[in-house]
Amino acid sequence: MFRKILFRFSTYNFINVTQKGKVALIQFNRPKAMNALCDGLIKELNQVTQEIDSNPEYGSIVITGNEKAFAAGADIKEMQDKSFPQVQNIQMLASWENLTNIKKPILAAVNGYALGGGFELAMMCDIIYAGENAKFGLPEATLGTIPGCGGTQRLIRAVGKSKAMEITLTGEFIDAQTALSYGLVSKVLPVANLVEETLKVAEKIASFSKPVAALIKDTINEAENIGLREGVKYERKAFYSTFATQDRKEGMSAFVEKRKPSWTDN
Ligand SMILES: CCCCCCC/C=C/C(=O)SCCNC(=O)CCNC(=O)[C@H](O)C(C)(C)COP(=O)(O)OP(=O)(O)OC[C@H]1O[C@@H](n2cnc3c(N)ncnc32)[C@H](O)[C@@H]1OP(=O)(O)O
């Protein structure tokens, strides 16, 4: 069903990368460590997502783990002996947010645990689908630390202050249905079908014009940084800019001519 991606850097130790049509599927591959996010895994993830982003063959990305764990957080064993100067001087987490610079839409398919950095990483994605067994949490307080990769900031924007405080201050996990009721995830699916169903949505997204998808992603994400008035201005500029593209012309012509559009990504 999948074909291996043959990128320049095609040997990975901590992830598997496969392709279905125009979709790249990235699967974390540290099953013995509940897919804990070690530095090597983040380096590979950054490298491959940048490659996919600049490869015109791909229109979207799906990130997943295994049935037990999406990712149980940053690797605690790797972090445990680090000192304050070490984490600050090397800016330990500086590259951990690179995923947010990817222009193509990213879907997270979360089965099992998405904890700490794993939950933060899922929240950096554009759409989250959860398997029925998914468990989300920010248990950093139980380790004597706090979320370090946008967890507090993205969670409050997704669920509001009281729930964000509750989740982060107690360190307790929430299940898939609760995450759905909080608006954190868009759908809850059977564990066995999660990746397949997520790929279907990713394929649909990838079937449209890539620059237009990138513009939608950018415009919605910008709403998290700016107020409504500025956001509407930002959106309007983006809307106008589609009139400089072939794909806008093609989409509207195809509608009027009652035919399917043929996107050129220009
Ligand atoms: C991209 C953005 C990232 C930014 C990161 C910024 C800062 C983030 C900080 C954090 O994420 S701190 C970590 C937060 N996560 C946790 O506290 C969860 C820790 N894990 C657990 O609580 C449990 O393992 C579990 C997920 C509830 C599963 O429990 P279960 O009893 O089923 O399995 P275990 O025997 O505990 O685990 C199996 C195996 O996996 C190892 N492991 C699990 N989680 C981690 C981890 N986060 N880091 C390193 N290793 C982990 C665990 O030690 C076991 O290994 P062995 O001891 O058997 O070798």
Quick synopsis:
By secondary structure, the chain is an alpha/beta fold. 41% of the residues lie in helices and 16% in strands.
Describe the structure.
This protein has 2 domains: 3-206, 2-enoyl-CoA Hydratase, Chain A, domain 1 (Alpha-Beta Complex); 210-256, Lyase 2-enoyl-coa Hydratase, Chain  A, domain 2, CATH 1.10.12. 41% of the residues lie in helices and 16% in strands. It has 11 helices and 11 strands. The strands form 2 sheets. Strands 1-2-3-4-6-8-11 form a 7-stranded mixed β-sheet, with helices on both faces. The longest helix has 15 residues, at 39-53. The chain is globular. Ligand LOHRUJSQ binds at residues 33-34, 36-37, 72-77, 93, 96, 113, 115-117, 120-121, 139-140, 143, 148-149. InterPro entries: ClpP/crotonase-like_dom_sf (IPR029045), Enoyl-CoA_hyd/isom_CS (IPR018376), Enoyl-CoA_hydra/iso (IPR001753), Enoyl-CoA_hydra_C (IPR014748).
CATH top level of the largest domain is Alpha Beta
Order of helices and strands: EEEHEEHHEEHEEHHEHEHHHH
The termini sit apart by 30 Å
- The CATH superfamily of the largest domain is identified as 2-enoyl-CoA Hydratase, Chain A, domain 1
Bound molecules: ligand LOHRUJSQ
The value of Rg in angstroms is 19 Å
Count of individual beta strands: 11
Poorly predicted parts: none
GO biological process, one term: fatty acid beta-oxidation
Protein name: Probable enoyl-CoA hydratase, mitochondrial
GO molecular function, one term: enoyl-CoA hydratase activity
EC number: 4.2.1.17
